[in-house]
Each structure stands twice: as C-alpha cells, then as structure tokens.
Design goal:
The chain folds into two domains: 263 residues, no CATH class; 93 residues. By secondary structure, the chain is mainly alpha-helical. The longest helix is centred in the C-terminal third of the chain and has 38 residues. Helices cover 65% and strands 1% of the residues. It binds zinc ion (ZN) (2 copies). The site of one zinc ion has 7 residues, from α2 and α4.
C-alpha cells in the first residue's frame, strides 16, 4: 500500500493498479457481460430438457461462432487494427459484418483501442492492461467508462475509410440483424425460433466474447517469451486453440505488422491460413511478413538475455569465463546476421530491377549458411553451460 503521508516526490507515471483511475461503471456492459454466460449456462440445458435438441441448432451456432470469431481476428485485428494485409472490398465488407456480429463495438472503436494496447502495453493507457490482473484484462475493463474510447486520433486511416465508417454508423443495425433477425429466421425454418435464438444468438455471442477476451488475459499470462520480454505477452499453442490462432502473442507483440501470429506453417493459426487462402483467390494482397534476419535478431537478443541471466546466478569464477564465451559467440551471430540482411537487401533490389544473377543468389545462400552455423554454435552453449550455483 502506498504511504499517503510520505514526503517523497509524487511519481509522474500513474500507478496502473490504482483503482481510482477507473471510470464509473457502465451498467449495461457490466450486466450483459456478467449475466449472459450465466443465462447461457441455465437456458441451454433447460431448453434441451423441455424441447429436445436439433442438430441444426448446434451446427448454426458453431458456424456463426467461427464467422464472428474470425471477423475479429482476420478482420478487426489483422486487417483494420494492424493493416497487416490489404483486402478486396468484398472481403472487407464480410469482415466488417462478421466483426459486428461478435458484439465488440465497431471496427473503428475496436482498432483505436487495440492500437493503444500495443503502444502502451502493460501501462496505464493500455485499455486492457494485463498487469491489473486476469479479470481486468479479460472483461472488467469493458465495465468501466474510458475517456479514450471515442478518441480515434490514432486511426485517421480508418476514419477516412468509407466502408469502415458505414459499419461504424450502422453498427447496432448489423448487430441486431446478425444476432437476432438471422437466428430467428433460421429458427423459423426448423420450427425452433427460441432454440435458435438461444444457441446461435445468446450462447454463440458468449463463446465469441470469451474467445476474444482470452487474447487480452490468458495470452498475457500463459506461455513463454521466445521473442521479447519487453511486455507480458506470451506464446502458447493452447491459447492459440481457443483464440483462432492469436495465442502466439509474444510473436505478435514483437512483430505486430506481420499477418501471421503462428510463424511456422503448422502453428495453429486458422486466421493466417484464411488470409493466405484469400491471397490465392485474389481477395487479399500485400501480406506482410517480417524478414528472417529481423526475426532472428530478436530471437538472438532474447537468447542472449537468457544466457546472461543464467550466468548471473553462477559462481563468479565461472561467470567471468563463460561471459566471454557467450559474448564472442553472440558477436559472431550478430556479424553473420548483418551480412545476411545486407545480401538479402541487395538481392531484393536486383529482383526489383530485374537484375538477379546466379552469383547474387549464391551470395545470399552462403550468407544464410554462415549465419546458421554461427547460430548453431551459439545455441550449443546452453548444453554445456554450468548450472547456477
Ligand atoms: Zn496483447
Ligand atoms: Zn494486435
């Protein structure tokens, strides 16, 4: 607890755990987000008990859950908030409708908040600051008024986008159509309007909410940090399974402009696979990928931190000798990375000008091999490094 009688200078940075910084409660948000999961848990079993089940109820709920969930990850997050790829107007329209179906505000509001999350991660101005605890970052942040919620100064590109602004203006009509009218219409087709409203409307919205909320809470708590330790973001394949691929969150926070969250092709990232498939069909373009040397530099910096932290716990005589070894292997990695990046730059320039030669291709390959060799030597140190005293 801070001592209110202290005579020391007040800190200029607001305490992120200070409850007084939270705005007044927005009761509609607080009640809906608290009661909708309880209502789902009670009404779905009650409906099945009294009226039985129909396969179309679950099938429609799952389909709409994927539709709305991917609307957030593929549309709101990777397209509008990060501009990690470009898309055809048809794709953008579908992304805006499916994102609205997720009931998480318009793409403009969502993206402006998310850009603040990346700019101020784990600090006071981060709307879902994970250092304030699981429930705050999961959903309690939505319970409170936030004077920045209608500040779109960090999203002039979106404010100038006619389609995004159309969705912003008509947000509640789209919400009502996707979450009430469509489930009701589908329900009448199988003579179960109430059942469809409960399964494909209420329960589906709850599941969509919880999947997205986990990105802000669990993805900042569970997993490891192979790319950077500058914030609380973590990589976790378990989180990826429940968030449509957003669980590789440490990679995402380190390289937010990359259209992928799961770097490897086999990492569970259906959002990435969908964007990639859209590219094959000509619906998405300019998919941004972080260049390999840039990624490996971050990976190296992080591994160096791990080594030095571990060495700091060893005996002084061991520490000194090993520090020299680690630093010299690290320097070799940095040198080969720089050479590889330079060769790649030259190669890209040649591709642009139509001047690619076999020797240039060879030079890139040699530079990559030299880096790979130095990286293997650097990583081999962890097998022989003495354990902490
Ligand atoms: Zn995050
Ligand atoms: Zn993001």
């Amino acid at each position: 607890m801070p001592d209110s009688t202290s005579t020391t200078e007040p800190t200029l940075v607001p305490d992120s755990n200070e409850p007084a910084t939270r705005g007044p409660i927005i009761w509609s948000n607080a009640l809906f987000l608290s009661l909708s999961p309880i209502l789902t848990a009670l009404s779905i079993p009650a409906y099945i008990y009294f009226s039985g089940h129909h396969w179309a109820l679950t099938a429609t709920a799952i389909t709409l859950w994927i539709f709305a969930g991917m609307g957030i990850t593929v549309g709101y997050h990777r397209l509008f908030a990060h501009r990690s790829y470009d898309a055809h107007p048809v794709w953008r329209f579908i992304a805006l409708v499916s994102g609205a179906a997720a009931l998480q505000n318009s793409a403009l509001v969502w993206s402006a908040s998310h850009r603040r999350h990346h700019k101020h991660t784990d600090h006071h101005e981060d709307p879902y600051d994970a250092t304030k605890g699981f429930w705050w970052s999961h959903m309690r942040w939505i319970f409170h008024e936030n004077d920045k919620v209608h500040d779109y100064s960090n999203a002039p590109d979106l404010a100038a986008d006619k389609l995004v602004m159309w969705q912003h203006r008509n947000y509640w009509s789209i919400v009502f159509t996707c979450n009430v009218l469509i489930p009701l219409a589908l329900g009448f087709m199988i003579d179960r309007p109430l059942g469809m409203l409960l399964f494909a409307g209420l329960a589906r919205v709850v599941f969509t909410h919880q999947a997205t909320f986990c990105i802000n809470s669990l993805c900042h708590m569970i997993g490891n940090q192979p790319w950077s330790k500058k914030d609380t973001s973590k990589d976790s394949w378990i989180c990826a399974l429940i968030t449509f691929g957003e669980g590789y969150h440490n990679f995402h926070h380190t390289f937010p402009a990359d259209y992928r969250n799961g770097l490897k092709w086999y990492h569970f990232d259906p959002s990435k696979w969908l964007i990639w498939t859209g590219n094959l069909l000509g619906l998405t373009s300019n998919l941004k990928r972080t260049e390999a040397p840039v990624r490996w530099r971050k990976r190296h910096d992080r591994q160096l931190e791990v080594y030095l932290d571990r060495l700091a716990e060893t005996l002084p005589e061991v520490h000194g000798e090993w520090k020299v070894r680690v630093e010299s292997a690290s320097q070799r990695v940095e040198e080969t990375l720089t050479q590889w990046a330079e060769q790649l730059r030259e190669y890209r320039r040649a591709v642009k000008n139509g001047e690619v030669t076999e020797s240039l291709r060879q030079a890139v390959s040699e530079a990559q091999k030299a880096w790979h060799h130095s990286w293997k030597e650097f990583m081999a140190l962890r097998n022989t490094m003495p354990l902490p005293a």
